[in-house]
Amino acid sequence: MHDDTGLEAEVRELSDVVEALLADQGGCGWNRAQTHESLVTYLVEECAELVEAIEDGTVDDRREELGDVLYQVVLHAAIAARASDGAFDLADVVRDVRLKTVRRHPHVFGGEDAADVDDIVRLWSAAKAVEKASRSSAYDGVPRGLPALSRAQKLEGRRVAAGAAPAAGRAADAGRAADAADDAELVWGRDLLAVVDEAGRDGIDAERALRRAVRERETLLRAVEPRRDGA
What we know:
Layout: H1 4-22, H2 29-32, H3 40-56, H4 59-82, H5 90-103, H6 106-109, H7 117-131, H8 148-161, H9 170-179, H10 184-201, H11 206-224
Helix pairs in contact: 1-4, 3-4, 8-10, 9-10
């Protein structure tokens, strides 16, 4: 592990590398042409590769992919700092997340006590609620860019946290599905949503469960695939 001085130096050197790429003289034209919006595709890809490394890779894979995600953060911060309004820089990003983390863990950094994990979640949720007091809906802040399974489960979790009973399942949607009989896609979507709700009630991460099943299928398909080397 690095000491604090080494960590600070490594972060500074990475920031300097990114600044050199963005420099008007001697920099990289491709990097200079990028915007927050144009980099979204790469950010999504890097996050997906990190998930794969965590679930199915080696320690070295995780280390590499964490670095790639960190690079995206540093690059986005540098682009923001170079904008005409100088909205923020990397120091602002680090400071904000540090302060937010401290606020959301009052049992560690404040005077609160937490007897168990449920207490920790309660304190974290209360601290977040104070930060997000301006939100007008319990469902604000659930990113539309999440994969559909993840977003469905997140919305259902917000609904239950707000005091509503968990979704009743497919039977509750039967009437609506019949009304939409001419829309086969929506009917299929409602059936899938009911399965996602069922997974939530069983404490299953639906997105991860599907990823595992898809990987299992891929392994089976590869096992029976004819080899292309002629053997």
